[in-house]
């Protein structure tokens, strides 16, 4: 069965997404999770988890940051809280978190999310043998490589089908360092909508912001794979992630609805090229005007990727 996973930016949006047909909500708090639309309080996480369970749906909590010592000290308490509110699973990127879960006997299923490291079945199966129930496939893996690895996977691999792609993360506060150098007292947070461009290529638009995990830089265009969903389904990639970090509000819910309808048609064998093209057009109309859309690395020849 296809599983649609979507981020949420508020309790109200979470409710709307559940009503729309999302199977799993993806939330968390900034201290532990990477590149979330918002950082939810503990009480908000509890409320959203309860609402998801009432609807017969699941919640995944982002615990996929690299936990430097000051953060790792806070991980056991957070894991205990997540166990208390009965979250369904967490994403984990730091092996230290897996160690803490095993050491403290905190039995929460985890999905391995090592970002750009997750590019082969060997990498995914390594973590499957150590308890992972799934893995988040790196955004840079083209479809030809996905086809080659599918039969070797011990656990399901999640694929980003809509949203922004991070192309660089550094623990260094690059923006703040620049502001310090230029003696500019400005905020480096996501809410400012900052971006950088390549020299002599003013049309490029690499979104950038800082938080406690460091500096994050995103690809020029966001991903929209609604036209490729049939291929993913045919090759048993059925965990589809929609990321609304740069696609806020009601329009994100409407975008998700397009994927829900696609899922429903695909599962009964009634998805056509005409329907896919219509969904592409509708999503383009709903997508933020200042952000482009393409299919990312999907159709690239693996030999072209450096």
UniProtKB/TrEMBL annotation:
- Any Pfam family matching the protein: Peptidase_U32
InterPro entries (alphabetical): Peptidase_U32, RNA/ubiquinone_mod_enzymes
Name of the molecule in the record: U32 family peptidase
Report the source organism. Answer: Candidatus Enterococcus mansonii
């Amino acid at each position: 069965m296809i599983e649609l996973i979507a981020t949420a930016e508020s309790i109200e949006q979470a409710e709307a997404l559940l009503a729309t047909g999302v199977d799993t909500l993806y939330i968390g708090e900034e201290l532990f999770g990477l590149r979330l639309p918002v950082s939810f309080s503990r009480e908000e996480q509890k409320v959203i988890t309860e609402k998801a369970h009432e609807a017969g749906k699941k919640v995944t909590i982002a615990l996929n940051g690299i936990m430097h010592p000051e953060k790792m000290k806070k991980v056991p308490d957070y894991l205990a809280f997540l166990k208390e509110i009965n979250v369904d699973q967490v994403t984990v990127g730091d092996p230290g978190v897996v160690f803490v879960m095993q050491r403290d006997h905190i039995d929460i299923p985890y999905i391995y999310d090592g970002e750009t490291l997750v590019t082969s079945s060997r990498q995914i199966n390594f973590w499957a043998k150590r308890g992972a129930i799934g893995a988040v496939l790196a955004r840079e893996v083209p479809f030809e490589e996905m086809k080659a690895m599918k039969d070797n996977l011990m656990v399901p691999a999640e694929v980003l089908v809509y949203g922004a792609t991070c192309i660089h993360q550094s623990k260094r506060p690059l923006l703040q360092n620049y502001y310090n150098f230029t003696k500019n007292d400005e905020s480096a947070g996501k809410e400012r909508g900052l971006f950088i461009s390549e020299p002599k290529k003013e049309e490029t638009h690499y979104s950038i912001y800082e938080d406690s995990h460091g500096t994050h830089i995103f690809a020029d265009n966001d991903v929209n794979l609604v036209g490729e969903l049939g291929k993913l389904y045919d090759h048993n990639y059925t965990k589809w992630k929609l990321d609304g970090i740069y696609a806020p509000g009601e329009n994100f819910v409407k975008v998700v609805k397009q994927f829900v309808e696609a899922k429903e048609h695909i599962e009964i064998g009634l998805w056509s090229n005409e329907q896919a093209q219509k969904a592409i057009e509708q999503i383009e109309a709903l997508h933020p005007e200042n952000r482009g859309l393409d299919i990312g690395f999907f159709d690239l020849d693996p030999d072209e990727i450096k």
